[in-house]
Design brief:
The chain is an alpha+beta fold. 33% of the residues lie in helices and 14% in strands. Strands 1-2 form a two-stranded antiparallel sheet. The N and C termini lie far apart (71 Å).
């Protein structure tokens, strides 16, 4: 009896996408820094940090106010990620400056939070209705 193994036919190994990205990142010697001190040593991460800061300033994410002793100052942390294309190749380094919001007290440190988010499916439905009714979309 002739089997696939005897004929040299082997089923290719399939790895999960996360493992493929891990292998690609390791092959390119790209590691995500765990601290700002590590990140500052590499131009890739310095550029990513500058892009994040300029985006935060452009969007007017915060406003500086004079410090009062009664204030609870919220710290922040840099988070670094390696981003990949769909095919698993390196795309860019991404840096995010995140607030340590778990140190805040609702009603004391902030009043209300709001993040306007809309789903793509909702936009498609509204546009479909507008087109079918002949409405002008601007």
């Amino acid at each position: 009896m002739v089997t696939r193994v005897k004929d040299g036919i082997h089923k290719p190994k399939r790895y999960p996408a996360e493992y493929q990205l891990y292998l690609t990142t390791k092959a390119n010697n790209l590691t995500e820094p765990t601290s700002v001190l590590e990140a500052i040593k590499h131009d890739l991460w310095k550029t990513a940090m500058e892009e994040e800061l300029s985006a935060l300033k452009k969007n007017k994410t915060w406003s500086l106010v004079p410090y009062l002793n009664s204030m609870n100052v919220v710290g922040n942390k840099w988070v670094f990620r390696v981003k990949h294309n769909i095919d698993g190749n390196f795309q860019r380094g991404k840096a995010r400056l995140v607030a340590k919001g778990f140190h805040q007290t609702p009603g004391v440190d902030f009043g209300e939070t709001f993040s306007p988010v809309i789903k793509a499916a909702t936009v498609r439905v509204i546009l479909t209705i507008a087109i079918s009714k002949g409405w002008i979309v601007r």
